[in-house]
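Example S7 (structure tokens).
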């Protein structure tokens, strides 16, 4: 892709969006991330980085406040949006239901299709399960998978360290790229 992929990280307040965005973009964790002290995002933060996996992709990761007080920012977030990651605390059914609403609203209003939306449940509890979310947007049924993610570091067979959150995000970026090609973008 010649331009940066614009991906919004959305969802309810205190779902872990900023911690996940910091982690995925590999920026240094602010002290509040290390201490797990909640520091709400004001409006939106834009993190730019290059993702190097099978191919190289420039990413603009829009870390959006979960406070609807900032919905005046939403038109700018929606403009030229390529994908969304709806993030929620995987230990809360209320957060799960709220994240589904966020995912549906942003995907519908940005005109996103299959492969351009995912939900990340932040939890280390492997027993948690969530149903994928589907909804109709225009004349298309959009299927949004739910992926359990963790920021715990693992080492692969080659000795490379990663986290399931990063590898899941990398896979999502490839899915977005394929979806854009299929849609002729």
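Recovered sequence:
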């Amino acid at each position: 892709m010649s331009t940066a992929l614009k991906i919004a990280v959305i969802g309810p307040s205190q779902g872990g969006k900023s911690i996940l965005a910091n982690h995925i973009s590999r920026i240094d964790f602010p002290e509040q991330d290390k201490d797990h002290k909640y520091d709400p995002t004001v409006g939106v933060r834009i993190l730019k980085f290059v993702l190097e996996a099978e191919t190289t992709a420039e990413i603009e990761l829009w870390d959006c406040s979960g406070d609807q007080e900032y919905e005046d920012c939403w038109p700018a977030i929606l403009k030229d949006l390529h994908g969304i990651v709806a993030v929620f605390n995987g230990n809360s059914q209320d957060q799960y239901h709220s994240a589904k609403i966020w995912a549906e609203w942003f995907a519908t209003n940005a005109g996103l299709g299959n492969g351009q939306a995912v939900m990340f449940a932040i939890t280390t509890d492997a027993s948690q399960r969530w149903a994928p979310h589907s909804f109709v947007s225009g004349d298309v049924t959009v299927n949004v998978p739910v992926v359990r993610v963790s920021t715990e570091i693992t080492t692969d067979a080659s000795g490379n360290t990663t986290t399931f959150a990063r590898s899941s995000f990398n896979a999502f970026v490839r899915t977005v790229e394929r979806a854009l090609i299929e849609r002729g973008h």
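Notes on this example. The first strand starts at residue 5 and ends at 10.
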